[in-house]
Amino acid sequence: MRLSTVDRSHIAPAVAEQAVEWLVELQSGDISEQRHQAWQEWRSADSEHERAWQRIEAINQGLRGLDTPLAVAALGAPAQRNRREALKLLMLCALVGGGAFSLRDSEPMMALRSDESTGVGERRALHLADGSHLELNTASAVDIRFDAGQRLIEMRQGEILLDGVSDPRPLRIHTPQGLIESRGGRLNVRVLERSSRVSLFDGSADLLADGQRQSLMPGQQANLSPTRIDPPASASEDSLAWTQGMLVASHMRLDDFLAELGRYRRGHLSCDPQVAGLLISGSYPLDNTERILALLPKALPVEVHSLTRYWIKVHPRATG
């Protein structure tokens, strides 16, 4: 099958990632008959799945003809894990946009190009040159620029917690939506789809966007977008539970809970609209998302349906 004969219209990133994971698993040479059947079921479950698979097969056939750094990495990385991750990145780049570099601003590419990054479900702690402490949450990527005149953290994606120290040099955090100036203290920043949520727990900070400036006091948070800064609201310490490897929910809607949990695992995770408004509370360990999903039917009247480990949907519990 040639790529020129395959439908090259847009494929949803979540579906593309599932197709890539299936390709890598199938090429591992160690796949059970049960997993092979699950792959076939995934393909037949949705026309979008089959279209993604048809395209990825065509891309895979032409992989060795690609003279790009990513292709070289995918084919020649000395360690199996590195080769597998390079292959995943290359396939995602080609699959979603139809070209090897069409996803240069996507999550995997930004992580590859950044000074420091984490994968899905990974967290990291860093000690910076000035003595500040920086923690990266799942799927985060930052550039760090410290020199004689400035301390700058460029956030490309994800979420950080910064414990900054006092220093004559300004400490700035730049996100895709604006700029944060800190004079030391404890600051949580999360890049959302159209804004950045900034929560201050100690010290002081100013938010800047489109000529506007908003100061935060400890215990306050605000959303920062390219054209506006929302009024400050109360910040919750529960939002920092990820630094302890936990997800804390307090009367959280199930759809919001699953969206949050989905940040820490690969694939598609959703729920039926009939159960979206169910409320859930508790503290959940993020290092075992499968365990959290297994516990859901004990806490709520729901069933967890797994087409594959990358495609999970929560439905109302069957009656009778």
TrEMBL record:
Residues 116-205 form the FecR protein domain. Residues 17-58 form the FecR N-terminal domain. InterPro entries: FecR, FecR_N, Ferrdict_sens_TM. It comes from the Bacteria. Residues 216-226 have a biased composition (Polar residues). Residues 216-235 are annotated as: Disordered. Pfam families: DUF4880 (PF16220), FecR (PF04773). This is FecR family protein. It comes from Metapseudomonas resinovorans (Pseudomonas resinovorans).
